[in-house]
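Notes on consecutive records. When two proteins share a document, each keeps its own sequence and its own token line. Never mix them. Below: protein one.
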Amino acid sequence: MAEETIDLVGKDLLEQLMFSLYPDAETIYREYLQNACDSINEAAELGIIDKKDGHVSINIDKFHHTITIEDNGTGIKANEAEMTLKYIAHSKKKKESAAGFYGIGRLVGGGYCKQLSFFTSAQGENVASEMIFNMDQIREILEDNEDNSSASEVIHKVTTFRNNITAEPQDHYFKVVLKDILPDYHDVLLDEDKINAYLKQVAPIPYEATFFNNLIKPNITKDDSKYLNYYNQLNAVKVSINNIVGLEKPYEIKFKGTEHEYTDDDGSIRKDNAPINEIRFFSIADPQLGDLAWGWYAYTPAGTQIKAIDPYTQENVLTRSIRLRCHNIQVGDENVLNKYFKQARSHVYFNGEVFIINQDIKPTADRSDIAPTSVAKKFQAKLEEFFRSDLEKLYQEANKANKQLENIRKADEEIRKIEESNDIPAESKATELAKQQEIKQKSQDTLGKIIAKSNDGSQTKSMQTLAEGFKKQFEQYQNTPTNHAPSTPHTPANPPKTLDEKISELTDKYNDKEVLMIKKIFQIIDNRYLKKYTQVVKSIKESVLNDLKK
């Protein structure tokens, strides 16, 4: 007797896949784009298209509340379309090359619309297929506590399928249509600017040409030619939004979110973002497994913090921190790598990317982080070691150097004030000057040790570059005369009389013994109270002298 097959997967699975797995609405674009890239890569492998001709077109129709995402990948054959599109958590993708591999991404858009549709055609066939999910009906079933349908039964109830749509044999595509986006998500999913900014960060797209030509190209083979090979293997596709072609990663030749002063040829001061002078490439390797990941980073000059909002454009900064990517698609957000630094704030002084290349390191189903595997743990340990031993040292040294520069500036300002003052007694002035000179000298010595690393071959190239930057900054400070205490005290054209001079003038009215007595009284007051009550003592003596002159 044949055993009865029981469907053990309840309808709540659909609740998780469509309404709970991806809490951020905009992630639907990433999921469908990920599937599109896999299809394009497969089409290129099969010779259906050249890789460079792969294209994902996104149309956001805010007036009709509809989103359409279409790619020119392989498509799905008519005799396979129905079962392929109805399958849940089943993927035929090649695990080693596919960005998406859980088989759950297709349903993700259903939670945000009333109708989810798929249209597809494969090369060589004269028909196209269509699958429609009635999302309102799904919601009704899921909310009905009396309905005990399995997940498969629900899908069969709410879908309609046909594969008799006329198509051209040369057609090959897959199209997703989200119709009637729910009102709660209009301000996110139908905002072209927001989606543009989001996809620039997460999508597997090319770099902007100026960034590539000025920073990647000249630096990628400096330390090892392997990085050029890794770069050439990066998955990148053309993506357009509302027919605007050429979506590119947002990296520029300057650190967006920073403030920096430039001195132009005419001597005028100009403010703009700090420049990216160079980028460094690195690999995260295991002794047995080889390279697990590779990447690049840029550190802000003189340890300038990258703010979340650019001070000049008032726009969100899309490049802050080092981003984690698998198949060139971002994993998590800008903070996902914070935990690998000893101090999370160190991270906002960098731009960069880490590209996972070991096939046993995969993102979690919601792509918020790395899935826990034995290889992933090795990768995370090595990444933490690199971040803390190499990158965090840059932050610490820059932080220390900035403090020394600030101490020198403050000491020079205090020295200037002391030397220009005529109200401080000579003995106190000498003491205060010596104190500030000592502070300045200590800070110069500490800064000098950091600057010396610019010529230290045992230091990393990044540390040498950092030190060279502070060397130039300190030299610029020294060569600006207005930044320093004057070499000789400033003497006013008509300097005010000193206290001794005012006392000596009393000889016109009092005899020598009386004047000497006044001096002794003032000396006693100075000895007992001047240090603690300097200003009060000065005021009392001035008042007494004025009264004695009357």
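Protein two starts on the next line and is unrelated to protein one.
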Amino acid sequence: MATDRIRMSGLVSGLDTETIVGALVSAASYKTTKMKNTQKKLEWKQETWKSLNSEIYSLYTGKLDNLRYEGNYNAKKATIDSDIATISADNNAILGSQTLEVRQMAKSGYLTGGKVANPQGNTPKSSELVGDVAVMTEDATIKINGKKITITGGMNMDQVAEAFAKAGVTANYDSTNGRFFISSKSSGKDANFEIEYNDEDTNDSGRRVLDALGLGYTYEDVDGVRTYTSTSDSDLVKIQGQNAKIVLNGAEFESSSNTFNINGLSITAKGVSDRDETSPTGYKSSTVTTSVDVDKIYDSIKDFFKTYNELIKKLDSYYNADAAKGYDVLSDEEKEAMSDDEVEAWEKKIKDSLLRRDDNLNSIINLFKDNLAKSVTVGGKNYSLASFGISTLGYFEAGDNEHGMYHIDGDPDDENTKSKDDSLKKMIASDPETVSKFFSQLFKGVYTDLNQSMRSIEDTRSAMKLYDDKLLKKEYDRLTNDIAAQEAKVQEMEDHYYDKFTAMEKALSKLNTESSSFASMLG
């Protein structure tokens, strides 16, 4: 650290020229330091504003944006009194009870091939060739849903499965069990598949290959039911793909999968309804009940106020912060003399005070508080947040900078109000329409005013900003130029003084030399 004390350390004059020059330019250097400190504080202020703006913008585009629409207060839930299906409801579902029967589950077409054996009676390995299993005099052509596949004697079992897969099914040869497993790629009647040999083949090569691979069968349709019979007396099993069928309120619906989306309900069938001979339909009906999802609506409102409370406390804390009198930006030397925690606490004191009594910050705080304190008319009656058991604490009850925070009566997570009657939940359950209209209008007011405040102001504020970011940047850039100019001035002053001292040192050196010569002459 520089000192005002002048040390005599010149080579010729005995003067400490560096210290002297430092003292001569100290006033100008101090001015540079003050400028840099001001710019550092401005940088911290910009960072604080960016962080706050980001939090407010996140609230604006997220929770606040959602809650300004009435539709987001129409959450429904659906329950069923049996395990034949799982049910969920969206906001468009009709309130009330409905009957449901599951008549048929969706299935994928599935073929478990008969056990394959080579002429020696052994189970073929995956690498064993078709020609070693089946008697082939020529290539065989088979069809899967009409798509032709060529099987050669030089193909192994895995390659046969790969050929099947290219026809649009899932296929695998299990060498452990000696069987082919083939299935459709999706459930439903239209995704079903059939494997047939090509009638145009000579020597029945297609039929003989399918039989040898445990895949040959015929089928017969009787009363809409298809039955399968192996053509090689193997234990082949074929299951036909089918659609799911349900009956909701007497109307039948069909789907290729077990999931149905009907008028706001999402129904996933889990099993067929029990038969009931006493029922006119022959099936036992289950009851689906759709009701207002009180908890979901309540949680969305509670979640908003949790986020809002954290934000408004932070805003109030910045606005009401103590002045950082006596605190300035630390120099590198000062930081070295302090611990990391001490430096952090010192700088935090400065940062926390940068928005103290800030006009822009005050406007934002008032925007939130004024809008949330408003009343809304619904059905000719005025409502406020207090009408739903949502209010701030009294002056002596609230903590520092917590007077703008809202508390919900009956909230089990709020120590201040959890013992009170839960008016909000009761209102959601008993009068969801009033809840929807009140909160959507209330939050729409906050959203609209925030939108207005975040509009661009030429040369002052960018769009979607709540602070004068352009002015702060201009000030920062101005300080950058001023600091550069001041540093140049200090350098110029130092050069001037060093030139003077250099001239003096040269003159003294010359004088000393001449004095020595004169003394020599005198003997």
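For the record: The longest helix spans residues 469-521.
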